[in-house]
Amino acid sequence: QSGTYWYHSHSGLQEQMGHYGPILIDPKDADPVGFDREHVVMLSDHSPLHPHAIFRKLKLEPGYFNRQRQTIGGLLAGRDQKAGERAEWGAMRMDPTDIADVTATTYTYLVNGHGPADNWTALFKPGERVRLRFVNASAMTTFNVRIPGLAMRVVAADGLHVRPVEVDEFQFAPAETYDVVVVPIEDRAFTIVGESIDRSGMARATLASRVGMTAPVPPLRRRPVATMTDMGMMAMGGGDCPPEHAAMGHCVPSGGGHSMEHSMRDFTPAPGVKRGPGVQTISPMPADRTDYPGQGLEDVGHRALNYRMLEALAPNPDTRAPGREIVIHLTGNMERYMWSFDGMKFAHVDKPIPMRSGERVRVTLINDTMMGHPIHLHGHFFELVTGKGDHAPRKHTVLVQPGGKVSWDVTAQPGDWAFHCHMLYHMHAGMMQVVQVRDAGGKVA
Ligand SMILES: [Cu+2]
Q: Locate the Plastocyanin-like domain: which residues (predicted)?
């Protein structure tokens, strides 16, 4: 094993207090990535508040840190949702500007521990191939990363090599890592922009040919607003859903808050989910969104990475078809800051998810909430099911888009493995489980 990784405390909320750092493992043989120099670019989020204070505020008022709610001004200017749509979301007690739980109102976004004003600088000589090892070591922040003026060739994801793919921007969630190679030709500075997904703030660093140089820092772009697709209603709307299709469950007709609210309270698509106050909504039609670059990147006007652009460089080590499928719903109640798998928070779960050593299992994650969740399984790489055959991209963390679903195949390794959302406060609230892998005799070996 080689590549870009990171370590962090799993004790309480220490990760938010700075107990993390990068881990780089050089390959023992020749590196398939050609580069002349390398830099670690570790993004994180820092707050002067104690993490327990942040969690308490979220529990009392989940929108506490959101200062970008919709306004009458935004309605009139056409920036925000239309009045009827807003009423429907209001009836659901959902806020479409709820893109991030914790924002720049308390966070400073850091690059390698430095705030935006510090101008942390990575040096290069013009013409060099520079490998940047991006690590998202934040507690709660999904970042949009770009370097205006430079194309980024993505060469590794979560530490493992992928077929090089060139993009202008990528979104990554807590725990994900991407290695990119850039080739700055000019003798000048470039700004490395790590914009938080809700665009309340940014991490900023500089790539420069000499110390002390700076480049223009682009302004924050307009914050995205969640859509029907983020609610798991892909085909919803207008005349697209005739009654006969609706009856077959192919789509959900629009027409007033009634049908929307009704369809999102229907547990039929989620028979394994425990009903209760912890489950605010069920996605009526969760879609495979692995071709989606992430909230706010659908219309940026340049190339943005998505999971379907990833393909493993080496053939997958295990190409057996899975023997069974486990479906897990990512559930929550945004109003009460409750997060869980299948409607059961970790404190209430009485048994682990069992797997047999060496067993090949397909895991399908369905997001019944309107937030993205980076789901991480300890001790494994899994193969994303995106049609890449025996070169499926292998990851340890996958961002499940709002209202979306993702499948991956995994070869179970013996042991007890934490399995959780990598949003720290989601995990703390209970979005966690244990995968227990045993041999036929019930032993770990
Ligand atoms: Cu989460």
A: 1-29, 100-194, 322-439
| pLDDT for res 82 | 77
Instruction: For residue 136, report the distance from its CA to the centre of ligand 1, in Å.
Output: 15
Q: pLDDT tens, 290-309? A: 999 999 999 999 999 999 99
Between the CA of 21 and the centroid of ligand 1 the distance, in Å, is 22
* Dist. CA 27–CA 381, nearest whole Å: 17
Q: Which of 181, 208, 235 lies at the terminal end of a domain, its last residue?
A: 208
Between the CA of 99 and the centroid of ligand 1 the distance, in Å, is 12
Tallying the residues shown for the chain, one arrives at: 445
CB 37, CB 131: distance < 8 Å: yes
Whether 70 is covered by a domain: the verdict is no
What 3-state DSSP class applies to 420?
A: strand
Pick the last residue of a domain from 174, 208, 242.
208
Cα 226 to ligand 1 centre (Å): 16
Query: Where on the phi/psi map is residue 23: left (φ > 0), alpha (ψ -120 to 50), or beta?
Result: beta
| Cα 374 to middle of ligand 1, angstroms | 6
| Mean of the per-residue pLDDT values of the chain | 92
Interval between CA 2 and ligand 1 midpoint (Å):
28
Whole domain around residue 155: which residue ranges?
Answer: 3-48+105-208
What CATH number did the domain enclosing 173 receive? 2.60.40.420
399 C-alpha to ligand 1 centroid (Å): 9
Residue 60 domain flag? no
Q: 322 CA to middle of ligand 1, Å?
A: 26
Flag whether 260 is in a domain: no
What is the ipTM, given to two decimal places? 0.87
Q: Are 313 and 194 members of one domain? A: no
Ligand 1 center to residue 332 CA distance, Å?
A: 9
Strand partners, 157: 160, 178
- The three-state secondary structure class of 350 is coil
| pLDDT level of residue 239 (50, 70, 90 thresholds) | very low
**Residue 238 scores a pLDDT above 50:** no
- The rounded Å distance from CA 258 to ligand 1 centre is 28
pLDDT (0 to 100) of residue 38 = 98
Residue 237's pLDDT band, with cuts at 50, 70 and 90, is very low
Residue 90 belongs to some domain of the structure: no
